[in-house]
Design brief:
heterotrimer; A mainly alpha (358); B mainly alpha (311); C alpha/beta (342); A: 358 residues; mainly alpha; 76% helix; B: 311 residues; two-stranded antiparallel sheet; 13 helices; 2 strands; 1% strand; globular
Amino acid sequence: MKGKTILVSFAALVGALLIGAIFILLAKSDPIRAYGVMLTGPFSSSFGLTETLVRTTPLLLTGLGIIISFRSGVLNIGGEGQILVGAIASAGVAVTLSAVPALVLFPLVLLSGALAGGIWGGIAGFLKAKLNVNEILSTVMLNQIAAQLYLLLIRGILIDPQEVAYGTGVPQTALVPAGVWLSRLIPGTRLNTGFILALILAVLVYILLMHTTVGYRLRAVGAGAEAARYAGINVPFYMVLSMFLAGALAGLAGTVEVLGVHHRALEDISAGYGFSAIVAALFGRLHPIGIIPASVLFGALILGADMMQRAVSIPAAIVMVIQGFVILFVVASDVFIRRPELLEQWKTWRRRRSGEVA
Amino acid sequence: MTDFMEQGILIGIIATGIRLAIPYLLAALGEMLTQRSGVFNLGLEGIMLMGAFFGFYVTFVTHSPMLGLLAAIVAGALMGLLMAFVSVTLQAEQGISGIGLSMLGWGLSGLFFRLYVGGIQTIEGLKPWKIPVLGDIPILGPMFFNHNIIAYFAFLLVPISWFVLFRTTWGLSVRAVGMTPQAVDTLGVSVTKMRYQCLIIGGMLAGLAGATLTVANTHMFADNITAGRGFIAIALVYFGRWSPWGILAGSLLFSMADSFQLWVQVLGINFPYELAVMLPYIVTIVALMISFGRVWPPAALGKPYERGVRG
Amino acid sequence: MKSTRKILSILLAMVLALSLLITGCGGDQKPAAPKADAPKTQKLKIALVLPSTVDDMAWAQSMYEALKKLQSQSKDGIELAVSERMGKPVDAGAAIRQYATQGFDIIIAHGAQYQSVVKEIAPEFPKITFAYGTGFQSGPNIFAYDPQAQEGAYVMGVLAAKMSKSKIVGIVGPVEAGDAIKYNKGFQMGVAAAGGDVKTRIAYTGSFNEIVKAGEIAKTHMDAGADLLTGSSQQAVGAIKAVAGKPGTYWLSTDMDQSAVAPDAVLASQVYNWEKVLTKIIDLRKAGTVGGQHLTLSFADGMLDLKYNPKLEGKIPQDVKAAVEKAKKDIAAGTIKIDLSK
């Protein structure tokens, strides 16, 4: 059964790529060459590989959060906002408390990023649990609010004093103290220890979801809130908890971007990861370990699309088209898994048709 | 502050608010129909973007705004059809397929724009059309009767959709399909057909809503020109309690908040503009919080219908 | 069932590790590049990283066109590579890094927001010249170019104040950052200096990219009485269209000559002479200086200028033009100092 679901994911990707190829042809370009760059570029140099993994890290972290929430039946679309909140909280704490020794500051910064994201996600969870507000709508609104709050802070009280002094006013915080930087795994690249952190968390989330009581209850709520309530599970609590955890993981993603990649908070640091993480999570079949290869794949796809744009001038927007089709195919093909008799019907229909022709 | 009390300013705020409300109103009315039939279409944003692009592109190529609007409506219908196929026939999880559709619409419109248009191009588009006589009434005239034809259509659509939904047999079937699909099925009405119809009509309206932005308001297209309006429109459906009048009220409330923050800024009232930009979204969340407590969505909303399966 | 998944994940991890080994050890291989250039050619390789698109009729396009012009005039030839839409810092970083590993001679990151990423990457590639702007911080191999937007803005403020019949002018600001701050402040000072009790109003869209909002703000300005508007960034086009829709109102452009967008609405533009700056950078590099300079573009060094829309030039009275010229000369000579610190 699981093997079939993995197959479905890949079939969805292949299908989406095929449709993408049609658009590339429409653009009077060569799909083979374009895809050649897009699919091999990220893997053909240490630059490509490390940059892929730089993108994988936030996808993985945010995706883990999405897995927890989706599995609990809460459709968390708020990744973008939660990443931003985590980024600004961690950057703010790091910059304001820069005098504190690194040994204390580092865990403090990580914690504040995760906590801030967790609270932001928790708001949506609370709205759903207590007021029955649709979480897709509330998280989308919260994304927009977070974006403006983020800008308000990096242009306002958290702006780099140097920017003010010179009058250029670039919206970014000061550099966070070197003591809290995440070390680079390979010098000369941007791959940092955040990647290892993400991998460790993937394993931890797997254990949490699959092997603890809390995880069991979260999944029970996701399988059926009414039934869970009858079984005595405190459904509202677990809804809020799932969104808190999801937000915390996304907040950590933002923190890693600040501490490991850019060393400060700047505009657009979330870079669409919040949405791409949804695609990656779905592609990885909402499994905490399955999302690891999925986020590597999508990290490569995103990087590859940029490389492709540089090489053959196909707009990088095609990556969003492909992601959209992947979601549609994955979610649509679920039906064949849920209702295998449909698959049988389809096979019979095919056989009958070819029988007639033959 | 005395500036504010000036008549001209007040007229300006309301006229701007009405103009801003049109895309929300159209998209939300379409979504209302869809949700009344029991389908939760989160792909509204993508459909609006496709409508925005094709409306712009066809107008650009043919120099006819009407053809552009027609193209936008067709594009919207096709997107609605796709959503119907995925959510109704294949019974996929509606929330996620909606997000997929939105991403698709966003990507495709951006892709086509880069491929076939390229840079900054502008079109003649629609201009406001002053209604004779009514448009000359002082104060009320410039406020209400000097808008483009899509605006007038959108406002007319409110009582029309009310009538269709609550006073026709078809409307009754739609509402029944959203409440108790099993009952409707046993009476011989095809649940699938009704949902397909509603999704296609909803898509057409969303496409038109997107075209309003490009063909009527800005006369140009840019990547992601809708900037989240589709999602807000969905929120407005909840806020308006699936009733055309409620949706009208919600759209106007939201747009007035938006218009208000524009004017606040322009008049130099010292207010961090990021807060001003946030205001409409906060208003929406508060509205959602208030409305969700005591509101019953169509009972079958979001649940794919399978014959023979209970509930 | 779980074992299937585990096996597949392990397989994937192995594939990943394998590819790391194969390629990582072998040193940097260049990903598929458009041309395979013979390494010892005299052709100058310049890369351009842009936050928007090459045809945005504003900031990015002006630099792009300058580079294309240099390319067509160059004797030895210039190879030009462009990355558009690098608005996200993570993507811009990857693009700049990729160009650096591909051996480009000059990498131009055209946007104030790239300062951070350029300062981070430049030290790793000391032989390559990096340039970015609007900026002030240079480095051993970094040139920071700094258009003094406030100068042209001041002059246009004078023009606006004297041309405005309603005595109200409006600024459609993207955000209070970078180029825009300088521009807005300079404009407001110019309006104040021109006298005549002209009021300046300013409203922000909150981003560089909200064309619809820019148009809405422009409309609101006009509804509130402004008849001369200005503003910066690529979303200005939205505002220009709105202004064009109302006869009797005019727009003052920056970044490049935008009169082509609305020939009946754009009164004048501030233009940057990027070619001069680029030529300076190329010459400096040839002479052995790969960076370390803060290059300004101003009236004084002739890299910044005001261009009237020829179609509408006749509408400007002679005394207004004279006042504008005087302001220009005074700024170039240093008689007028535009103080940007609040």
